[in-house]
Amino acid sequence: MGRRVSFVLIGFLAVYTLIMTFMTLMTVQSTYPMTELSGGFDVELRGETYENIALTEMEAEGIGEIKKGDVMTISRILPDTKEVPFPTLSIKLRYSAVEVFLEDRPVYSYKMKELEDGAFIGSERHFILLPRGAESKKLTIVLHITRDNAFRYISTPVFGDYDDVAQSFLHDYIFSFVSGLYLFIFGVLFLVIALLFARRVPEMRVTLASAVLCIVLSGWILAKHDLLNLFFSVGNKTIVEYSCLYLIPPIVAAIVWITKNFVSKKIFLAYSVPLYVVAGWNFFGVLTGAFEINRFRAPFYIVVFISIVAVAVETVFCFRRKLETANQIQMISLTMLNLFFIGEYVLYFLEMRYPWVQSHLGGTMMPAGGMLFSLGQVMNFFIFVTQSYVRRAEAASLRRMAYEDILTGLPNRASFDREARQIDTEGVRYGMISLDLNGLKETNDTLGHATGDRLLSSFGKLLKEVFGDVGFCARTGGDEFVVILRGATLSGTKDDVERRLLILEERLKQLDKTDGQVLHSAAYGYAFSEELESPTTHDVFLLADSRMYDRKRAQHTVM
C-alpha cells in the first residue's frame, strides 16, 4: 500500500512542479502595449441598448438570456496605444457566426456561409488581424447566435500586436500545450510498441488501449483550449473536442475490461455498456446530421459520473483482493484521471458564472490528470518489462531442465528423441554413435557419487569437444551417450568417425594421467542409415548399440 501512496504523492509533486516551472519560465514580455478590453462595451440585443458593459459580466448587467437566432452587436473604441505593426484582437466566442467591422468597414467574418446553411458552428478562439492604425477607432462585433444561452459571458478580449497577443495566449495555456503535445508523442510511441508486440504478447493489449487513450486525451486537451490549430488546420475544432470527450470514458472502461480489474462482470457491463450506447448515439447524430455533437451532453455526464464512481469502487476492491502491482497502479491511474475529469467539468460550469476561474485554473485539470495517467503507464511498462524478463528466465530454466542434462550440459533423452523424430521426418542420411562409459557403477560404489558425477561431467565435456562441431551429442541414460551425425555416409564419413574416436580414446588416456583416481574409458559402436533398408532412427541406433556392446564384451575379454 505504501508504494501506491508514494506513487500518487510523487505524481502530484511532479505535475505541480511542471506547472509551476512552465508558468515561471514562460513569462511573456510584450514588445508593444497590450490591453485587456474588460469593459466599456456598448451592447445591442433585441432592440435594447446597454452601455458601458463588461462582457464577462453581461448577466449581472441585466442582459436577458441569449437565444438561438439572436443577433448581438458589441462595440467600443479601441484604446489609444502606441502604434503596433500588426494590430490584433484575441477573443473566444461560442456557437456564433461573427462579423467584425472597424469604423463600419468589414475586416473579418467567420462561418457566415455555415450560418446560412444551418450547419453546426462551435466555439473558437479568434485572432482577428486589424488594419494598421486601428488604435482609437470604433470596433464593432456582430454575433449571430446559433444556440440558446450560447454563453453567459464572452472571454475578455485582448488588443495588441499579433506576436504579443499570441505569446500571451500560449503562456496562459502553456501547461495544456506542453502536456497535450507530450501525451500525443507518448501515445504514438506506446502505440507503435504495442502494435509490434501485441500478437506475441497478449499483455500488450492494455498498453495498446492506454496509448490510444493518451492520444485521445491529447486531442481533447488541445482542442478544448484552442491549441489544435497550432498543429493542424481544423475546420471545426468543437467536433474534435467532443468526439475525443465521448471516447475517453469508453476507452477507460475498455482498459478495465482488458485487465479484468472488476469484481463482477455483470456489474461492470451494467455501468460500462451505457457509456458506449450514449457515446454511440452522439456520434450517430453527427454522422446522420440529426443533431449537433454536443446536444445530448447531460445523459453522457450522468453515465460518466456513474462509471467514475464504479471505477473508484473497483479500485478499492483491487487493493482488497491484493492484485498484482501493475494492476493496482493501472486502477490508481484510471481513478486519478477520472477525478481530474470531474474537476475539469466542475471548473467548466464554474467559469460560466465566475470568469476568474478560467483565468486562474483553466487548462490545468485534465492536463495534470493526463500526465499522472502517463506516469502510471510508464511505471506499468517497466514492471511489465521486468516481469517479462523474469518469465523468460524462468521459461529458459524450465526448457533447460526439460531438454538438457544438468550434470553434463548435453541434451538429454527428450532432446535426443525430438532430434530422432525430426530426422525420420526429413528422410536425410545420417550416422549414429552409441557410447557407454565404462566403470561408472564401480566408481559410484567405491568412490562415491560425487566422483562418479565428475567422471560423467568430464566425459560429456570431452565428447562435445570431439564431436560437437559435426554432430548432435546427448546423454540418454546413466552411463549411455549417443552422437547423431547428419548427412553422414558409410563411404564418406566412416574414416572421419574412426579418426575422431581415436582422438576420444587418446583424450581419455590423458584424463587418466591428470585424474588417476578413476579409469576413463568408453565402449562405442556406430552405424549408418544406408546400411539398412527403410531405416528408422530406432533401427540405426539398435545397430550401433549392438556394435557398442560387442566392443564392450571384447574390452572385458582383453582385461
Helix content: 55-70%
Strand tally, please? 14
Order of helices and strands: HEEEEEEEHEEEHHHHHHHHHHEHHEEHEH
Q: Radius of gyration, Cα only, in angstroms? A: 40 Å
Shape: rod-shaped
Major sheet attributes: 6 strands, antiparallel
Average pLDDT, to the nearest integer? 83
Strand content: 15-25%
- Number of separate helices: 16
The overall number of domains is: 3
Secondary structural class: alpha+beta
Spatial strand order of the main sheet: 3-2-4-9-6-7
Residue ranges: pLDDT <50 for 5 or more in a row?
Answer: none
What gap, in angstroms, lies between the N and C termini? 73 Å
Topology:
Layout: H1 2-25, E1 35-36, E2 41-45, E3 48-53, E4 71-77, E5 87-93, E6 96-102, E7 105-110, H2 112-117, E8 124-129, E9 138-145, E10 158-161, H3 162-172, H4 174-197, H5 204-224, H6 237-259, H7 265-288, H8 297-320, H9 325-353, H10 356-361, H11 365-403, H12 413-426, E11 430-437, H13 440-447, H14 449-467, E12 472-475, E13 480-486, H15 490-514, E14 522-528, H16 537-558
Antiparallel strand pairs: 1-10, 2-3, 2-4, 4-9, 5-8, 5-10, 6-7, 6-9, 11-13, 11-14, 12-13
Helix pairs in contact: 1-11, 4-5, 4-11, 5-6, 5-11, 6-7, 6-8, 7-8, 8-9, 9-11, 13-14, 14-15
